[in-house]
Amino acid sequence: MKVGYIQTNPIFGEKEQNFNEIEKLIANLKGDLIVLPELFATGYTFISKEEAVSLAEKINGKTSQFLLKIAKNTGAVIIGGFVEKEGNKIYNSALIVSNKGVIDTYRKIHL
What we know:
CATH topology: Nitrilase/N-carbamoyl-D-aminoacid amidohydrolase
Oligomer: single chain
Strand order of the largest sheet: 1-2-3-4-5
CATH class: Alpha Beta
CATH architecture: 4-Layer Sandwich
Shape: globular
Low-confidence stretches: none
Order of helices and strands: EHEHHEEE
CATH superfamily: Carbon-nitrogen hydrolase
Strand content: 25-35%
Number of strands: 5
Number of domains: 1
């Protein structure tokens, strides 16, 4: 099994720019499992809960769709962190996807 990872310095709140950076970096990467940074799509410098809520998304949101796209393009299982929204709560979560769909989500408990 080949495991790869990508480390980036995401632009806070700029999901599309961060997605584009990941796509460029992953273009020639070969692996069975590729791990992206925690909160790779939004960055991690929230100054308030409201700011985090404004960038949160449901499990089938924009970040999930992006991860599914790169899983299909690479054939790899992809793990990427995102701000998950469920009801009135938000979580620092990691989404695990393959070219067949979402495998699971992990919600971080501690910083």
